[in-house]
Amino acid sequence: MLSVFDHGPPPPCPAPFNMAAHVLGRADLLAQKEALRVVGGDRAEVWTYAALKAAVLGTGRGLLASGLAPGDILLLRLGNTVDFPLAYLGAIAAGLVPVPTAAGLTEREVCGMIDVLSPRAVLRDPEVACPAHPKTLTTDDLRAFRALPPCAFDLGAPERMGYIVFTSGTSGTPRAVAHAHRAIWARQMMFDGWYGLREDDRLMHAGAFNWTYTLGTGLMDPWTRGATALIAAPGTDAVRLPDLLRAHDVTIFAAAPGVYRQMLKSAQSLPLPCLRHGLSAGEKLPQATRAAWTAATGTPIFEAYGMSECSTFISGCPAVPAAEGALGAPQQGRRIAILGPDGPVPLGEEGTIAVHRSDPGLMLGYLDAPEETAARMQGDWFLTGDQGAMDAQGQITYLGRRDDMMNAGGFRVSPLEVEAVLAHVPGISAVAVVEVNIKADTTVIAAFYTGAALDDSDLEAYVSDKLARYKQPRLYVHLPELPMGANGKILRRALRASFEARK
Length: 503
Fold this sequence. Notes:
Layout: E1 4-6, H1 19-23, E2 34-39, E3 45-48, H2 49-65, E4 73-77, H3 83-93, E5 97-100, H4 107-117, E6 121-124, E7 136-138, H5 139-145, E8 161-167, E9 175-180, H6 183-186, H7 188-195, E10 202-205, H8 212-225, E11 228-232, H9 241-247, E12 252-255, H10 257-266, E13 277-280, H11 287-297, E14 301-307, E15 311-315, E16 329-330, E17 335-340, E18 343-344, E19 351-356, E20 365-366, H12 370-375, E21 377-378, E22 381-390, E23 396-401, E24 406-408, E25 411-413, H13 415-422, E26 428-439, E27 442-451, H14 456-464, E28 475-478, H15 492-502
Parallel strand pairs: 2-11, 4-5, 4-6, 6-7, 10-11, 10-12, 12-13, 13-14, 27-28
Antiparallel strand pairs: 1-17, 2-3, 8-9, 9-20, 14-15, 15-16, 17-18, 17-19, 19-22, 21-22, 22-23, 24-25, 26-27
Helix pairs in contact: 2-3, 2-5, 10-11
């Protein structure tokens, strides 16, 4: 049998459609229910569904009144506050195309994004790095918009562009991924296929407001279901999270693997009486972390696999837990395959994880890059670039990346992007950047270079204003030479193996 798993098509997305209208579809019915609570700060910040909807639609009216029109691209340069999701949903409600970005990006990195996007306007927090733009709106403008009368939802074809996210690519240049409004419709497949999400749930996410994992799993999906979303206040230390989970009767907890590891450092036993289970995504969850969490809390962690181009589509869930060592199975409504050069490979064999082009969560394409979009397709299949193997039950085991992409705290990072910055350091003759394992279940980005032996602090200072913190190497290793293949390409995997063998 071949490695193709077809759960059958999801229900078709209704038309006309608006992503924000779908997220807030239960807001009137649940008007006085708590939609959002920010926990762990100096004061409680609570939003009811009625207040949330009013703020979103007021924001939409304000953005239109400022001279923007449906279809315009709006770059979001906002910090880790509730301003972020309100601006994001408000823009979508009004038919604009928001672009959420990480606050830690440098001005240099944002300049590159602006070159790609040509945004009609930038919405920014003055504390967040951003180059000057002819049309800039501030957080003061944004907060004033919330008191305005509501705009109407801009309804239209589900296939029209709804938002854009950036992902690092193998070329080393961040790519703009365009998504349709229908992408939110696809996320319903996660409710049972990953979350086990119910209307009475209190789902807490440990990530920042302006991280796409938080935006989807921590906010959009609970609101769509009519549940309550809880977000940890900025600066909340991981050791405080268990107390917050208990104090706020959290039933589902979502975080990246690193957060689970930090929480487990504080205690071997973490009694969480209301918690049913945890959720993990962003990077591979180490089996040791999963086992330690279950031992400490008595609850499982359900992991999901996805990417900027198609969110999450393979997962374990309460009804169908992942087999030991596996990521999980395709969610209901997904069609997933493991491909070789000639198509699906036999069950049990390694190949590239691929998503069928009919998936409603699949991107429209890379913005203004049809050739690059086409290069990711093999017939009717989108190639993820990650390797896996499928068993007869559809359980998929992750076998690593086909390329050399790295993972830093849940963010995918291209080694070429980091190498391009370090190549300009005086004294460096060649450089290769690799993700390496420094101890059990812990990896970091390491830069190996030849030429003059340089002080690590000088290298750290050089990259500090050129790369976001999560892209910056944590290790610098001077070598007499870098390993090269017969074709003259740097053998990054050989570098990784050599370094880890010497530990």
